[in-house]
Write a structure and sequence with these properties.
It is a single chain. The chain is an alpha/beta fold and 361 residues long. It has ten helices and 16 strands. A hairpin with a 6-residue loop joins β9 and β10. Bound molecules: threonylcarbamoyladenylate (TXA) and magnesium ion. The site of magnesium ion has 3 residues, from loops.
Length: 361
């Protein structure tokens, strides 16, 4: 199949194209579309055949549940058995926006969409093209991130095209997304509600509205014998093809350590890459250098992360070293994705010793 690639402005959805996209979804086909977090690979959330097509286009294991995207608060009722009071308050505070909530599913939601689970993940995104598209599609669009399984999530239309051309009917492209990291996921079926995946909406923002919340402890480190509660988080996602290692410590020690590692890799004939803050990047001697943004500017680091990881693939880096970033605010989500991309390989600079928990299960 040939993928129709339509470009438009974020604030001016091209309505004829969006209507055509909606028609494709209502007929059981697939369309990739932008959201404020990352691009999604959409199909009809209430159609079991469409869910199967999504898994196969993405090359994704079918036990990994999909998020259903809605464009009207009223539509949540149709998907869920009950809406807890706290979920109503979170929806009021953060929807439309980069927050996904998990509920007990209604009979309307096929098990194909939820990967066999009796719960369903729902998100009301905040993006003019996404909202127009969901409405034209009948209101319920199941969508994982629009990358092929194992690659970094797409933050621009060209990333989607690289991964999915020929596998989907249409791509609605409104350029680069605003956030760049997938939505925060919170499970509302447990008490206290639990964060399964950190994102732009932080723990502090959530507890500011509903009080006590829990965090799945596998989101910041690997724990022996413990699988993440969001099935998708167990896969080695987000990974570039080159071997990525994170180096943490004081700025001076990190710079020295990374340069030493880069030198050793070059001597072995490897093509080297580095991710550093704007303050440090010029000090590194690497073949490919990525400026993640200023140290304090977590939003920019988040927005650039996945496209930097993809660029290392394009430029064929064999080994990549990255500075660690501050784990506050959205920085927590950045570190969560970076740790997964690195398979949890972390070197502590300046203490003689190296910490590497990558071999732990
Ligand atoms: O920002 C986002 O959330 C993007 C955009 C497109 O909306 N979507 C996205 O979808 O990141 P995906 O499929 O790449 O990640 C969804 C995650 C997976 O880790 C999946 O296992 C988890 O959500 N998930 C979905 N339904 C779940 C459920 N019922 N229980 C637990 N985890 C669930
Ligand atoms: Mg994904």
């Amino acid at each position: 199949m040939e993928t129709k690639w339509i470009k438009m402005l974020e604030d001016e959805p091209d309505m004829p194209a969006v209507k055509e996209a909606g028609h494709i979804i209502r007929n059981g086909g697939l369309v990739a579309f932008p959201t404020e977090t990352v691009y999604g690979l959409g199909g009809d959330g209430l159609n079991r055949e469409a869910a199967k097509k999504i898994y196969s286009a993405k090359g994704r294991p079918s036990d990994n549940p999909l998020i259903i995207h809605i464009a009207d608060m009223e539509d949540l009722k149709m998907l869920t058995k009950e809406i807890p009071e706290k979920a109503k308050r979170l929806a009021e505070a953060f929807w439309p926006g980069p927050l996904t909530m998990i509920f007990h599913k209604s009979g309307q939601v096929p098990f194909e969409t939820t990967g066999g689970l009796s719960t369903v993940a729902v998100r009301f995104p905040n993006h003019p093209v996404a909202l127009a598209f969901i409405k034209e599609s009948g209101g319920f669009v199941a969508a994982p991130s629009a990358n092929t399984s194992g690659r970094p999530s797409p933050t621009s239309g060209i990333h989607v095209y690289e991964d999915l051309q020929g596998r989907i009917e249409m791509l609605l492209d409104s350029g680069e997304v605003g956030i760049g990291i997938e939505s925060t996921i919170i499970d509302m079926t447990v008490e206290p509600p639990m964060i399964l995946r950190p994102g732009f909406i932080t723990e502090e923002m959530l507890s500011g509205v509903i009080g006590n919340i829990a965090v799945d402890s596998t989101t910041q480190k690997q724990i022996a014998g413990m699988a993440p509660k969001a099935p998708g988080m167990k896969y080695r996602h987000y990974a570039p093809r080159g071997e990525l290692t994170i180096v943490s410590g004081s700025s001076k020690e990190v710079k020295e350590k990374i340069n030493g590692l880069l030198k050793a890799a070059k001597e072995k004939g490897l093509r080297t890459g580095v991710i550093g803050t704007e303050e440090n990047i010029r000090f590194y001697q690497a073949d490919i250098k990525m400026n993640a943004g200023r140290k304090e500017d977590e939003l920019t680091i988040a927005r650039r992360l996945y496209s930097m990881l993809r660029e290392f693939d394009e430029k064929q880096a064999d080994v990549i070293y990255s500075e660690a970033f501050p784990g506050t605010g959205i920085g927590q989500a950045v570190m969560n994705r970076l740790l997964k991309a690195a398979g949890h390989k972390v070197i502590q600079a300046g203490q003689g010793g190296e910490k590497d928990d990558s071999n732990r299960q």
